[in-house]
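Deviation from plan, reported transparently: nicotinamide-adenine-dinucleotide complex.
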Amino acid sequence: MDDMFRRVLVTGGAGFLGSHLCERLLEANCDVICADNFYTGTKTNITHLIGNPRFEVLRHDVTFPLYVEVDEIYNLACPASPIHYQFDPVQTTKTSVHGAINMLGLAKRLKAKILQASTSEVYGDPIVHPQTEDYNGNVNPIGIRACYDEGKRCAETLFFDYHRQHNLNIRVARIFNTYGPRMHPNDGRVVSNFIVQALKGAPITVYGDGSQTRSFCYVDDLVAGLIDLMAAPDDVTGPINLGNPTQLTIRELAEKIIAKIGSKSEILCQPLPEDDPLQRQPDISLAKTALGWEPSVPLDIGLNKTIVFFEKLLA
Ligand code: NAD
Ligand code: UDP
Ligand code: UDP
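Because the crystal trials were delayed, the predicted structure below was used instead.
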């Protein structure tokens, strides 16, 4: 169908990734419905889109059924930072599982394409490194991260069962740590925490000894990957890793941010949270071959843009 007339639902559209996705879809002349219960997302994230006649906002919780008419669904609704998803863990699992069932039911009735925002957390504390899509992961099913990890794993199961059982046109993206403007300043994620702490001259809270690794993807690259996945041929269901393979330790990240900001902040080591993965890095060979996608924004450039965002926010 022509871009001019594509009607797209984005659940979690008022969140960090969702608001950037809504923006890109509107730029591509789609009609966009953003459904969000504003649990971690904010109206501020989408204020600049309100007034665009192609944009519509629904206050809606995806654990309840939703009846709208669209051609494509991006299912992003779910708190994503550990402090937010652990605040009400039962609700987190309900959002992932009941939310997936409702959005899959909607996609089934409409014969719409549906994309799931899954996560590198399905790999848990990975033994295989870097992580490839055929690795089944190492998740503690009863730990404090399980509400999120197992909720997302079950959502993937539902996506593939609706695909096999009802012939649904599905896409599953396994998103690795993504950062950029509009991250919530208090959501506890490492990039936002370190930048806010460094800007305030407060101690930089490194959990554990900071030797654990992550690989950070700039939001614009990630959103482009989601759109490419939705547009890919129907046999490209995924799961497919989307992330930036440039890996660094959390201590290196802290030092980089301190240096960029020229901050007087010191590093303060705090206990490592339970089940915190020791290493994480995406193997993106599949995304490169199946989508022709790879990230293009280097960490230094992305961090500069994110620092500018937080400077303005704190001013
Ligand atoms: P976010 O917290 O900013 O956005 C999540 C959005 O979902 C928020 O607007 C929130 O209000 C909304 N929401 C939560 N529960 C809801 C419910 N029951 N009904 C309707 N809306 C609800 O987080 P984000 O970083 O933008 O993450 C978006 C999606 O991408 C999530 O599904 C997350 O699991 C996934 N993801 C993100 C990352 C990352 O690094 N940012 C990594 C892996 C996966
Ligand atoms: N659903 C929805 N919108 C729709 C169609 C279905 O929210 O347009 C929900 C509905 O609540 C249902 C769920 O999706 O419980 C799963 O739908 P499905 O058709 O797979 O299952 P069933 O209705 O048979 O339980
Ligand atoms: N982290 C940290 N200090 C902080 C916040 C996070 O050292 O103030 C660490 C955290 O323990 C983890 C990594 O940074 O090892 C990434 O944490 P985040 O919550 O951003 O994402 P996730 O653990 O889900 O990858």
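Residues 3-179+219-244+281-296 form a domain with the Rossmann fold fold (CATH 3.40.50.720). We consider this an acceptable substitute for the interim report.
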